[in-house]
């Protein structure tokens, strides 16, 4: 694979008919990195990908590799000369060409010799476990096989950057996990720099070196999977990464304690303690302090699995009545109505019954509090 | 699907089958029978012999091909770039389509009448050409070969364009992007991806257009010289049937027409299969 040392995307902005689809998108990509653009539909992740690919013109900003400007909105290198590879959601295989000819497509354009093309195509098909399928046509293959052809068609050209646009979303659940593992293995083996676009947080967590969480054209957080999962930058990221129990609350007290913030929040008569690791300069810290001074409303976010069933000396405990139980094997999805008339979601490891009364407690470290101002 | 047909489903097809048998199969078979019999009903090949040995009649094949093939080629080849540029839709597409469809809706006779007055020796086209001094005297656009050809293009182009447009816009736009990402220029993408995928549509479009042009009749009479240079095969059949009242020879001529159309269509389909082997397999993906 071709290497680079500095791949910089600076303040990329894309406007469609007066609407901003992508706003000041900045990112530095390291060679060999696996980056995921994650967000719900309409968050601008595909726009960002297509802008980097050169398939749609950018309004402002700059993309450069090793100091060479690829695109600055005025001068651009056309997509066919960027030596990037793209795998599409619907695979976009050429239906009139056999598997061999699909994979050889790019090599033929580069006027390689016949034996060399044969050698490279064979190697690429072997890499994606499709030996012996050379003469099939795309329509004769399953979705997973077509996806492999699409990947082989890209990597055979040894691109500087491999881009995958929701590549697994057309596959069924089992195949999706299989292909995900395979993508992971492939990336480890080839070390090709990869941008992966998805709305599935599981895929993002499983595959990425870094995740870029996006919303409404803006980057919300960039970080390693563990960081984005455990330490969301705002309420949106928390919500998207599987936090539940997002309740309207008011701040009763707020104490600064080094890198920590100690907060007391009230959710409809229920008092909760929160110990927040929001260091100096963290926008979340500034946001909360401002909200506290203004007496403004805040929001909580607690993972269901962080809610402890039973009494706990450190936390505050409250009583709740189970209203919904969905059996999920290892755990159950349980909703319960607390005494303050709020629904709590939890994942108890022991079986519970609908109508049962549970004593719940939450450790202060597990409670996130965000200023509610910017939804 | 097939199971359904075996059961009561066949009943629903019945009206269509009756329709096709009454209006197509029966007249065709009756014509075939007529073409191989004498007016008295005796089996004979003389109807065909008469047509092929009479130079005046046999040359209508060549006369018609000389009009129909160029007209079809012009229509189809002209439609490809138009359809290509409008494949993702464009501003004013509806207006353009509207103007293209008008000639189709007006019918051959009205278009011919219009051409006779606008493109005749004193029509505005000739006045314009003379006013800007491109030509000295009036150019003859009507009552000759060119009149028929032009009318076939006016009638056939919108049809070809709409058919091919429907075909091109059905091609997944991601295929073009994929081709581009693999290093293909616009021209290479057209030659290696879009054109091969358009071939089935182009082939069908060519066939339908050719059949329409080969059976040209009203414009050959109204805009051409039916006494000679544009005495097309359909006109010959008409003369035998309704001027000389010899339905047997007229039927033979119709059968010759059908045979020639079949030959051309088969040729086009062979060409299509050569280029587009995956044709039968387009479905998913």
Topology, element by element:
The complex is a heterodimer of chains A (375) and B (285).
Chain A lengths: L6 E10 L2 E11 L4 E5 L6 H9 L6 E6 L2 E4 L12 E4 L11 H11 L4 H14 L15 H13 L5 E5 L7 H18 L3 E5 L2 H7 L2 E6 L2 E6 L1 H6 L4 H6 L7 E10 L2 E8 L2 E8 L5 H12 L2 E5 L5 E3 L6 E12 L4 E7 L4 E4 L10 E6 L5 E4 L4
Parallel strand pairs in A: 3-8, 3-9, 6-7, 7-8
Antiparallel strand pairs in A: 1-2, 1-4, 4-5, 9-10, 11-12, 11-14, 12-13, 14-20, 15-19, 16-17, 16-19, 17-18
Chain B lengths: L1 H34 L10 H8 L1 H31 L7 H14 L1 H11 L5 H8 L13 H25 L3 H9 L4 H29 L3 H5 L10 H10 L4 H29 L10
Summarize the structure.
The complex is a heterodimer of chains A (375) and B (285). By secondary structure, chain A is of the alpha+beta class.
Quickly list its features.
heterodimer; A: 375 residues; alpha+beta; six-stranded mixed sheet; 9 helices; B: 285 residues; mainly alpha; MetI-like fold; 12 helices; 75% helix; 0% strand; disordered C terminus
Overall number of domains of chain B = 1
- Provide the residue-averaged pLDDT of chain B: 88
Largest sheet: number of strands, sense, barrel closure of chain A: 6 strands, mixed
Radius of gyration of chain B: 23 Å
